[in-house]
Amino acid sequence: MIPKRVLITGASGLIGTKLTEMLIAEGFQVVHLGRSKKQGVVPSFTWDVNRGVMDAEALTGVDAIIHLAGAGIADKPWTENRKQEIRDSRTRSTRLLFDLLKKSNHTVKTFVSASAIGYYGFEGGETVFAEDSKPGSDFLASVVNDWETEINHIQELNIRTAKIRIGIVLSEKGGALKEMANPVRWGVGAPLGSGQQYMSWIHIDDLCRMFVYAMKKEHLQGAYNGVGPLWVSNKELTKAIAKALKKPLWLPPVPGFVLKLMLGEMADLVLKGSKVSGEKIAQAGFTYHYPDLDGALTNLLSEPK
Prior knowledge:
single chain, alpha/beta, Rossmann fold, eight-stranded mixed sheet, two-stranded parallel sheet, 14 strands
């Protein structure tokens, strides 16, 4: 049975905003759950993850939950407090949903949660990671592993559960693409570090379609990599952005030590990467609208006619 009423957590972010638009366009009833009540066409409910409370009526009539909530990993420097916030915002929010679902009389049949390809760690080299690969050992890998442990508990409630391990999301409205495209527009774009680190990317439309697909298809459960079919190097992505914007690239790569000085441990987000396979979701019947990088960037970066 295809869900009719969908609750989205973390809906104010880049992915949640696009996903809400997509679901409404398809005729779904959408409700939001967040830290503050929003005014708009979508009903909005609140929760306080730190206090472990939420509006119980948020679940009224809900068939499916799409769980996107979590503090942005690149929004602030990685102090010890911030790292704890990154972890807690994911694990505690998922645990809160589990607790409420366990004790309430609800109608939820499907739970689709965000996860991240950070699960595999940053030291992949030429290894191609699939969903059954072992988790990495760095900070983000440990966060995602803890997060998925909490997600997996939802299955104990006889709720079909799927996890989308999100890669580098390409969107014209924010995220990695905006941070990379702006310097290129200004004539100061350059690859980062060696430029050889792999970037497993996906167009935001395809990612949101993947969440909808996982929600609709009852045979989907467990982990799926939210990446496109073709990874590229940082250098290749930078060149492709310059091509789409019709701008030259003339500066040498930004040295890794400079980024380390500027960003500290968080520099790993841009200096390291991994090859992550999208084969499992494709084998499950999902088709990409933007499987190649040039087509994705043309769609996202072309000036409106």
